[in-house]
Amino acid sequence: MAAEPAARAGLDPSRAPAKVNLTLRVLGRRADGYHDLDSLVAFAGAGDRLSFAPGPDWAIRVEGPSAADTGDPADNLVLKAARALEARCPGLPRGSFRLTKRLPVAAGLGGGSSDAAAALRLLAASAGLPAGHGAVVAAAVATGADVSVCLDPSARMMAGIGERVGEKLGLPPLFAVLANPGVAAPTPSVFRELGLRPGQRLREDPGAPPPRGRAALMDWLAARGNDLEAPALRVAPAVGETLAALRATQGCRLARMSGSGATCFGLYDDCHAAARAARTLRTRHPGWWIAPTLLR
């Protein structure tokens, strides 16, 4: 990752966008029980928002439509990230965070990881550190597997347990609708349902990288999938209903589950088709969380 301040990179450090797994292949299960993954991720316009103000100690206030689902603030990944960076940067100025939680929680969108990455960007800017400083990157790894890929949110490949992050891919923007039916698909339960033994391998070759052109990219995506989709359907059958609802919308080119679920996405040719699909879904499923967005 380039060692440059977030502001110079044109990235709003307070923005915590949703992470969407366009593909997710499980290569196998390691001897330590963790799963090796190979995933193309992109980031949405939809997301949370985080702010930081200097203060005497670490604190966080959570508000917004999903605030009630975030659990004990003391366990929030934002504070874990702050303490991880402080451990690597003695004298780091402490303070309080204000998190506006808009993304559904535990939904396969990496919301907590993206929040933590935003905290690291804000703290780096406050301390005058470049966004790619070694301490910032190390703190991301220490906070959680998906935090590293969220530090500089752009389409890229992610491997290992999520800690190995590829270069920016410069893919064409993808018009999408995100849909979450409001049910839980806990990640540990989904991986248990996958049923791999420690040391068991499904494949060794991560495969060819994605092409840059839109038509070729859509073909590449269609030929790949999400290996956690089938086990997630057994854990949370509402995932199947969500996928069917997306596929039934006019102009849907591809529908797939993100991460371990239960959020799913549909891809469309343009913003107008995505907006129409979102309106249709909101009419038919008023209790769902639905967001038309741009993935890049």
From TrEMBL:
Residue ranges annotated for the GHMP kinase N-terminal domain, each copy included: 76-150
Ligand binding (ATP): P104, V105, A106, A107, G108, L109, G110, G111, G112, S113, S114
Residues forming the catalytic site: K19, D146
Highest taxon listed in the record's lineage: Bacteria
GO molecular function: 4-(cytidine 5'-diphospho)-2-C-methyl-D-erythritol kinase activity
Enzyme Commission number(s): 2.7.1.148
Endpoints of the signal sequence: none
Keywords for this protein: ATP-binding, Isoprene biosynthesis, Kinase, Nucleotide-binding, Transferase
Gene3D superfamilies: 3.30.230.10, GHMP kinase, C-terminal domain
Pathway: Isoprenoid biosynthesis; isopentenyl diphosphate biosynthesis via DXP pathway; isopentenyl diphosphate from 1-deoxy-D-xylulose 5-phosphate: step 3/6
Catalytic activity: 4-CDP-2-C-methyl-D-erythritol + ATP = 4-CDP-2-C-methyl-D-erythritol 2-phosphate + ADP + H(+)
InterPro entries: GHMP_kinase_C_dom (IPR013750), GHMP_kinase_C_sf (IPR036554), GHMP_kinase_N_dom (IPR006204), IspE (IPR004424), Ribosomal_Su5_D2-typ_SF (IPR020568), Ribsml_uS5_D2-typ_fold_subgr (IPR014721)
Record domain GHMP kinase C-terminal: where: 217-283
Enzyme class: transferase
Role noted for this protein: Catalyzes the phosphorylation of the position 2 hydroxy group of 4-diphosphocytidyl-2C-methyl-D-erythritol.
Family: Belongs to the GHMP kinase family. IspE subfamily.
Protein name (database record): 4-diphosphocytidyl-2-C-methyl-D-erythritol kinase
Organism: Alsobacter ponti
